[in-house]
Amino acid sequence: MHALLFSSQPYDQDSFSHAPGAAQLALHYQSARLSEDTAALAAGYEVVCAFINDDLSAAVLQRLKAGGTRLIALRSAGYNHVDLAAAKRLGLAVVRVPAYSPHAVAEHAVALILALNRRLHRAYNRTREGDFSLHGLTGFDLHGKTVGVVGTGQIGLAFARIMAGFGCQLLAYDPFPNPQVQALGARYLDLPDLLREAQIISLHCPLTTQTKHLINPQSLASLQPGAMLINTGRGALVDTPALIDALKSGQLGYLGLDVYEEEAQIFFEDRSDLPLQDDVLARLLTFPNVIVTAHQAFLTREALAAIAATTLDNIARWAAGNPQNLVEG
Ligand code: NAI
Questions:
Q1: Is the pLDDT assigned to residue 329 strictly greater than 80?
Q2: Is 91 a residue whose pLDDT tops 90?
Q3: Which one, 111, 203, 228, 302, has least CB within 10 Å?
Q4: Ligand 1 pocket test: which of 75, 171, 174 has the largest number of ligand atoms within 8 Å of its C-beta?
Q5: Range of the domain at 42
């Protein structure tokens, strides 16, 4: 059986070629992002393996189906980018990797907190330029601070455990409270109360119609002045232009983003020779108290190995008529 991996990077080739079961499949790697323009590349491939910024809209699925594709194997946990109703209508099965390493994402969220708080990005540049001054680098003790965790599933739990280890007070919001998070001493509150009380807020919920623009002008106005916001969930959880106003006024004191609403056309590519066309992202990058990473929270050796192993297992089980990790609309 032949499988085509769209949006594949050298690290994907490495992890997939070393994963158990790789020899049983003919794996083909394509660096192009899946879109209406590139869907034709999948003609003749029974399995298309896609990542988070691939386009899996109805029009693209229609083209894949016409080319003979029968299975969409997502290399991600999130599936908000798939038109599941269209997949069902076309008889395309969709499988995903529900969990690979919650620690990878949680630890990246913490890395953003530490870097923003202690201004590591500025200190790094300064010392390399021979500037050993400390002005503007004052941070705060994390110990004793109030941290709000929005979405307390696997990643939110891993994040809460780390922050509890720092001696933070934990607040949580999730329609389904997690007893393991409660056992850490976290207090579950309604979202507006959490946003009002927390000094650091980290988003770990999925993107759905309910969570789109969960952080918006009104919720930003309710934050503690100078609060820190971390988003490693999905870009559209926050209304990005509203962040710029909150940063300009100082209402938002720190911002760490690993995901961006309009990232699909930008992230995962070296664009350093090109003018940045996205004015919102360009403005965000001018703030000294903002760190943007290009959707790299998942990127650890352990997570890549787990993504490859589960994806190949998903494909093998589907081929054997015993599918697992199916996503249904
Ligand atoms: P999970 O399914 O274990 O947990 C999600 C939690 O969010 C659940 O407890 C659920 O009840 C909660 N939730 C659902 N609706 C909510 C709402 N309206 N408000 C607050 N909470 C809500 O998922 P997991 O593995 O913890 O992943 C969370 C998200 O992290 C994913 O959906 C994905 O978007 C993102 N992610 C980002 C990665 C990155 O590289 N930046 C990598 C992997 C996941």
A1: no
A2: yes
A3: 302
A4: 174
A5: 2-100+300-320
